[in-house]
């Protein structure tokens, strides 16, 4: 991730629309209303609660997208299928007597940032838990598990004791003075930690969420590993919650790359995943009774992204409200209903013809399905993270509606059904796959027209090139397309005017990230079949 990537604070994850004040005032009163509306039957609400047919287009795209996680691997590679990648980062962590060789490089550079890496793991776990059957149908489930374990192996090693977590391998200042392949890097790669004296609640809580969600993924296929992940998750959550403080304050240098302006959302996010993983009422009480008012105090819904997990938490806890939990108190039930109501506000904001629809969209129409709309667009930096995350949440919520036989979504006087949300998700995915004014696929390797000058060190330098740290910049400035195709990379995306400049120096638009890929993998996995059946995580 390049240093000049601004913004990185939660302020750039905020919605660009204002909810009608009355919607906030009447939230509690409307709980009864949505229960009644659930009983209504719209003309499209009678879909069978069975897996739909496979959509080859999305299966092919999923297989392509999965490859980028292989491209980003650090460490001693196993069954490596990327011809231009080799072992790298083998000494990471040695100065701390740790093995931090695994994990993934976050983007086009060669630093392993723990915060976005943990989010990558959490979202990938969520995708597997919701859509593992679809992944299996196109022979990508084991691939996804292997990619996830490569990250969680690193995260386990990065947590050597209860209140210590290593959150970075490599020095971004040194790294950005070089343009080189990861296999030949020679600069120092120090490890950075958070601890009691220098806390980092957001990164510790996100890592707890990653391990808790991954423990569910591996529960039936590797129970010993699953239990180990859960133990680490619980320890990290206690650390994050007991010693509260932002890692951006404790370690100011991270502000240039992955800044955070708060940790409350990560604490709720982690506790929500721990509840799913343990069914321990303490975690449910934490998010619904002890801290449940936090989401209401923040006002308008937010965009789901690596630095803001509130919308994701609302949808994840809606799952409990849709399908029920064990031995819940009335206060916990009310808290879950409130999370679901706020999740509904998020959904209403995404639907293009909703009374509360966000205006944060491009103008270009996508007409694959009945309703045409533009791409959700929030920031010129890494623009695709917001529409892909929004589409993923909309798809998940749509499938919750289908499986619970919830027929309607109420949006300030208008009724919608689950297909409206699914169609929105399809529109956003189709834009990325080439149904856009540029007629360009933003998924590298998909179709015949996609970016050729991706901002990525390894992809831009020939395997046979004999270059060091500084002389490698000639490859950054080269006018030739990348000699190695970063298949599966999801680039940053278009400007609001829907233009894309395919230049290697254009990191704003042309740099891919693993966390964007994880979200897109989740979205594609959910679209592999024409409908999905929600199953119990355990």
From TrEMBL:
Gene3D superfamilies, per database record: 1.50.10.10
Domain (Glycoside hydrolase family) ranges: 58-524
EC number(s) stated in the UniProt entry for this protein: 3.2.1.4
Molecular function per GO: cellulase activity
Source organism, top-level taxon: Eukaryota
Catalytic activity: Endohydrolysis of (1->4)-beta-D-glucosidic linkages in cellulose, lichenin and cereal beta-D-glucans
Active site per UniProt: 455
Regions crossing the membrane: 12-34
SUPFAM superfamilies: Six-hairpin glycosidases
UniProt-listed Pfam families: Glyco_hydro_9
Keyword annotations from UniProtKB, A to Z: Carbohydrate metabolism, Cellulose degradation, Glycosidase, Hydrolase, Membrane, Polysaccharide degradation, Transmembrane, Transmembrane helix
GO biological process terms on file: cellulose catabolic process
InterPro entries membership: 6-hairpin_glycosidase_sf, 6hp_glycosidase-like_sf, Glyco_hydro_9, Glyco_hydro_9_His_AS
Annotated family: Belongs to the glycosyl hydrolase 9 (cellulase E) family.
Protein name (record): Endoglucanase
């Amino acid at each position: 991730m390049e240093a000049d990537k601004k913004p990185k604070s939660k302020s750039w994850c905020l919605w660009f629309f204002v909810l009608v004040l009355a919607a906030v005032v009447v939230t509690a009163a409307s709980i009864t209303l949505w229960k009644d509306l659930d009983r209504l039957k719209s003309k499209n609400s009678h879909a069978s609660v069975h897996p739909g047919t496979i959509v080859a287009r999305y299966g092919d795209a999923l297989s392509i997208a999965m490859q980028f996680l292989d491209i980003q691997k650090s460490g001693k590679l196993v069954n490596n299928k990327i011809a231009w990648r080799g072992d790298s980062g083998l000494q990471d962590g040695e100065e701390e007597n740790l093995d931090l060789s695994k994990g993934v490089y976050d983007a086009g550079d060669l630093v392993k940032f723990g915060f976005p890496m943990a989010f990558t793991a959490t979202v990938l776990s969520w995708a597997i838990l919701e859509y593992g059957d679809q992944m299996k149908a196109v022979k990508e489930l084991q691939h996804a598990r292997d990619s996830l374990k490569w990250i969680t192996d690193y995260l386990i090693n990065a947590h050597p004791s209860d209140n210590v977590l290593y959150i970075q391998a490599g020095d971004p200042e040194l790294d950005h003075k070089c343009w080189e392949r990861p296999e030949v890097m020679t600069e120092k790669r120090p490890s950075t930690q958070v601890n009691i004296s220098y806390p980092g609640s957001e990164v510790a809580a996100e890592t707890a969420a990653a391990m808790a969600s991954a423990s569910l993924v591996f529960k039936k296929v590797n129970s010993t590993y699953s239990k180990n992940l859960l133990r680490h998750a619980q320890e990290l959550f206690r650390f994050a919650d007991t010693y509260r403080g932002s890692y951006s304050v404790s370690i100011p240098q991270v502000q240039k790359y992955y800044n955070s302006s708060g940790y409350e959302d990560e604490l709720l996010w982690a506790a929500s995943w721990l509840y799913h993983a343990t069914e321990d009422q303490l975690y449910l009480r934490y998010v619904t009774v002890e801290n449940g008012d936090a989401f209401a105090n923040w006002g308008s819904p937010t965009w789901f992204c690596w630095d803001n997990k509130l919308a994701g938490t609302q949808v994840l806890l809606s799952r409990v409200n849709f399908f029920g939990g064990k031995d819940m108190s009335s206060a916990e039930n009310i808290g879950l209903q409130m999370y679901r109501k706020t999740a509904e506000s998020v959904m209403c904001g995404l639907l293009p013809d909703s009374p509360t629809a966000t205006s944060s969209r491009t103008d270009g129409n996508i007409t694959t399905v009945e309703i045409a709309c533009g791409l959700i667009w929030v920031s010129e930096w890494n623009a695709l993270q917001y529409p892909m995350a929004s589409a993923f949440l909309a798809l998940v919520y749509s499938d919750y509606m289908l499986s619970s036989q919830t027929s309607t979504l109420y949006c300030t006087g208008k009724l919608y059904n689950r297909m409206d949300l699914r169609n929105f998700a399809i529109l956003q995915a189709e834009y990325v796959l080439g149904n856009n004014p540029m007629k360009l696929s933003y998924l590298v390797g998909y179709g015949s027209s996609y970016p050729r000058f991706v901002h990525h060190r390894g992809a831009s330098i020939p395997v046979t090139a004999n270059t060091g740290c500084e002389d490698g910049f000639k490859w950054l400035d080269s006018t030739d397309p990348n000699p190695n195709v970063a298949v599966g990379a999801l680039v940053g995306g278009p400007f609001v005017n829907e233009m894309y400049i395919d230049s290697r120096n254009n990191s704003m638009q042309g740099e891919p990230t693993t966390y964007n890929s994880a979200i897109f993998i989740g979205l594609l996995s959910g679209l592999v079949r024409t409908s999905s059946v929600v199953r119990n995580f355990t």
